[in-house]
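Board notes (copied after class):
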Amino acid sequence: MSEWNSGQLSRFDPDTNGWKTWPLPGNDPSPYAIYVGGVDQVWVRDFGGNAIHRFTPETETFDTFAWPANPGEVGQILGRGNEIWGAQSADDSLIVIRPTS
């Protein structure tokens, strides 16, 4: 789950009945939309950081992709195959990320 006010991602583990959290990188993260893509990668839109982050649960690491427009004002993200899509309301454009790794 994304936590807008705390700037982190969280996951509930029903086996332990507990939560695990990871703070997003950057100075003022505000996670919003989440998309879970192939090979267990979690993509999260960071409204405050003007970026999208790819979180890999296995290594508990983030990769950051900055938006071309600043501010991009992207709220929602979706994906298909090896593509992550977002709509930038600040300049009425679509962007796509096609990660190579």
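Comment from the instructor: The domain at 2-97 is CATH 2.120.10.30 (Neuraminidase). The beta strands are 2-3, 8-13, 18-23, 31-37, 41-46, 51-56, 61-66, 77-80, 83-88, 93-97.
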